[in-house]
Structures are given as structure tokens and as C-alpha cells.
Amino acid sequence: MELQFIFSQFLSGLTTAIFLFLIASGLSLVFGVLRVLNFAHGTFYMLGAYIAWQVVHWLSPSKEAFWPAALLAAGAIAVLGLLVERLMFRYLYDKEELYQLLFTYALVLILGDAAKIVWGTEQLSVTRPPVLEGSLRVMGTLIPEYNLFVMILGSAIAVGFWVILTRTGVGRMIRAAAMDREMLGALGANVGWLYTGVFVVSSFLAGLSGALVTPIKAIVPGMDVEIIVEAFIVVVIGGLGSFWGTFLGALIYGQVLSFGILIFPRFSIFSVFALMAVILIVRPWGLLGRPLR
Amino acid sequence: MSRSLFDRIPWVLVIFIIALGIPWLGSKYYTFLATQIAILSLFAVSYNLLLGSAGLVSFGHAAYFGLGSYACGLLMKELGVPFLIALAAGGLMAAAFAAGFGFFCVRLTKIYFSMLTLAFAQIVWAICFQWNELTGGDQGISPIPYPGLNWLSSVPGLDGFRVGDYFYFVALAVVALCIAALHRISVSPFGRMLMTIRENPERASFIGVNVRAYELAAFIVAGGFAGIAGALFGIFNRGVFADFLYWPKSAEVLIMTILGGMNYFWGPVVGTGMLVVLNQQITAYTEYWPLVLGTILLVLLFAFPGGLLGALHAGWTRLRSGGRGVRPGA
């Protein structure tokens, strides 16, 4: 294999990884604080994509419609997350974990069909915003400017996240909740609003990543369950609830998928699940996670 | 717990005899529904040995269902193996895989257990989906021959039924035997010990119980019976497809179990019956079955967390206490 080819494979893996990080970080954040794997996270992502398409469609003659569309989509999904958490989800916090999981699965079923009713089952797509239409040549490989933009944005969000988590009061609360949420409540923190806030931020990220993926991937029904399984693998590899773990997990997943296709073309899906199984067997709390208490 | 008269009734036998009468209604559709309910009931009851008895939330039970149907289907179609042997092989195959996977799964707890069962199930799915030479890939295996059941028509009183009816009789008998076995297991000392482990695994290990060994045994038994259910379903469906072991199938069996009531042995059967009938009724009107299913699930979680049988039980208790509002279990 030539170096250039390897590099271009590496880049495609990296693009996958940044998207997965954007999606999985919200999933991991909610798990860290609420201790629930949110199946509906992928559905929020899909709805973000559909809403972005819808806004672009409404503003259609305008070429720069993509930007407001992406922001509106992320905002709309954040509001959806707020409603879901305040009106329904929080009444299940004192119930068994299984019921909370099933609640998020019920959302997958309901919202997935709702999207089908509103937008149909045909593929929809959004063109790249004109500012980022070109490509850059790096080491002989063409990289679309848009992919580069997403990589930079994703990294910026990662850094921003890390700053919030380690340098602010809210971040301290989130880390405390991940460690021992009962103690945090006992110390007088307003855990209820912390949960709501975390759920809203996570929904915002899901909606944003859904909107950002539209210029690269077609919007189709079923993209929600496809992505949620991938995001599960990422957070399991990196460590459920661990921030840098999610980042590392996404990088590994992207590369395994990207090179796995070359080595065993038919068994690339197999290889990522096998990786997930091996991690769970050897180190169930993931590469950078901590054992749950 | 004293055994009341209610508990002394051999329910498996009673339900088997009632269900046996369905082909006499003369409707192909009723037999079709009843076969599906019977087979999926076995799948759900096997799942509840994990969920209800042992408190283990598996996200990958479809793997064993699917493995059973692939093994049985391939043996019958490619090698012409007789039905009963292929059926047993399906169950054994699923149990063997459950033993291998379960060995690792029971080492984990809670969400990690669930995630590992999911990972293993998806591995099996990925292999079955892409190994075209053996499993037919996304085309699956079909048609699977019906077992030769014409000898049933020479049984007095059973002549003149359709092939589907004969298969129903046989499937129902197999299901009844398996459910009876699962019932014996769940009320046996072994089953009681699973419940002890579910309630307090730490205490169980302190009194000298090998928690992992018990959980593994439950995993293997549940997997094996799921394999038998899968084997029957493959024949009923006239084909085996990779969907059988894809994760939504695992979610489906979980929902069936919760819907009926995971704290009751018959809960999964009630849940399966309700879901299959509703599915048939609703998909006749609309393609949006997931929307309906999701709504049912929401109502269940918020209004009847104990499932249908849980709600009935609570209602019955209130009625008997003269409406004084005594809550079940209080």
C-alpha cells in the first residue's frame, strides 16, 4: 500500500470519527450524569437532519441557508429534549433502569415514525454551503473543505467541552454527578435542573450533528438506529461517561472501520462489534472510563 | 408462600388443551395467528427466565433464536435431516453458543452485561448477514421444507386438516413441553436461587452460592429454548433471514415480556398474544406499527409498570379487599 493511499484512508476514518464524536459525546454525557443509555439520541440526530433540510428547503433560493438551518435544527432538538425531559422522562428517574431504557426506546419508535409521516421515506439531501464548496490538496489527497470545517469544529467542541468540564462550576457538578450523584444531591446541589441541562445540551449536540451531516450523507429513515448502534460502540470502547474516552473511542472506531474495509471487505461490521466485545471482556468500563459504583 | 388452588391448576395443560382446539374453528387465519403466538410465546418465556427470574437484561436474545432457526433450517433444507432431530440440533446449537457467550457475559453486571450480550448478538448477525455461501446472506434461506406430517391425518379425528394445521399441532406440542419444562425450572430450587440472586447478588455469594455459575446456567437454558422457538419459527415462516437475530428482534421480545408482566410466569405469553394480535390488526390499517407500539410502551411505562398481569393482579387484590385500596405486595 502506498503512503498516499493510507493517508487518504486515514482521513476518511478521521472524518467518520469526528462525526461520531459529536454524536457520541452527548450520549456519553447523559450516561455519565443520568446513568441511562439514551436510545433516542440517534433519533434526535435524525430529526436534526430532517429539520435542517426543511429549513434549507424553505429558504431555498438563498445559498447560505445552510448555516441558519443548522442552528435552528440544533435549537429545535434542544427544545424537544427539554420537553421530553421535563414532561416525561424525569417521572421515571425513581423507577428501574430498565424502564428508563424502554422509555427512550419508545421515543425511537414514535419519533422515527413521526419523521416518516412528515418527510416520507425518500432520500433527501442538502448541498454543501457555497463557502466550503472547494477542496484542499494535502499530501496529494483532495480533502473537501466542508470535511475540514467539520473536523475543526468537532475538535473545537471537544476542547470547549473539556474547558467547561474542568474549569467551571457546572463542569464540576457534572463530574461530581458522574462520580456519586446521591452525594451531590445530599450536598444541596439542584440535581433536577442539572439533569435537565445535561439532557438539553446532549439533545442540542445530537441535533447539530444531524444538521452537519446532511451535506455529506443522504437523509433516510433508519439513519437513527444505524447511528445509535455506532455511537454505542464508540462509548463502550472509550468508556461510558468518559469524555476523552469518547474522543478516543471515536478515533479508534473511525480507523478500524476505514482500514477494516480494506483488510476484510466483507467483515468490516463484524470487526467493530468484535472490538466492542473484546473491550467489554477485558476492560468493561472502557479504555478511559472508570468502573461504575 | 402457600400454594393456593389457583397455583395447583396445571396451567400448561389447560392452555394446551384449549389452544389445541383452534384448528376446529376452521379458519386458516386463526391457525396462522395461533402458531405465531405459540412459537413467540416460547421465545418470550425463555427470555423471562433471564429477565424475570434472574434479573438479567439481555439485549441479544434474538441471537439464540436466530441460531436455532439457521441450524434447523440448514439441516432440513440442505441435508434433509428429519424434523425432530433438526429441531433438537437447533436448540443444542443455540445452547452451545449461549454457553460460549454467556461465559463472558455473566462476568459483567448491569448495563455492561446488556452491552456485551448486544455485541455478541451483533457479531452473529454480521456473520450470518455476510456469509453468503452458508447462510445466503441477506437473501436468507428459503424455502424450508415442511416436516412430513401426513401421518397425523391417520390419527382418528385428525383427518382432513390443512398442512398448516398439522404443523400447528406439532409446534404447539413442542412449545407446551418446553414451557412446562421452563415452568418446572422456574419453580425448582434452581429457579428460586436465581430469584435470590436477582434480589441480592451480594448476599447470595456470601452464603456460598456461585452466582456466576447459576447465571450462566440460566443463560444456557434460556438460549437453548430460544433456539427451539427459532427453529419452529423458521419452519413456520418457510424461511430463515438475518433479521431473526438483528437487535430489534431482541427489543421485541423484551417488550413482549414487559407488556405481559415480567414478574409473572405467564406474563410473556399474555404479552406475546396481545402484541401479535395487535400487530396483525393494526398493520392491516396502517404501516405505522412502530408508532402504535411506542405509544403502547409509553402508556405501559407510566400507567401499568407491572404489565397487563400486574395491572389485573392489582385490580383483583383491590376487589377482594373490598375496595379499601390495599396495594399489591403491601
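qc> Residues 9-247 of chain B form one domain.
qc> done
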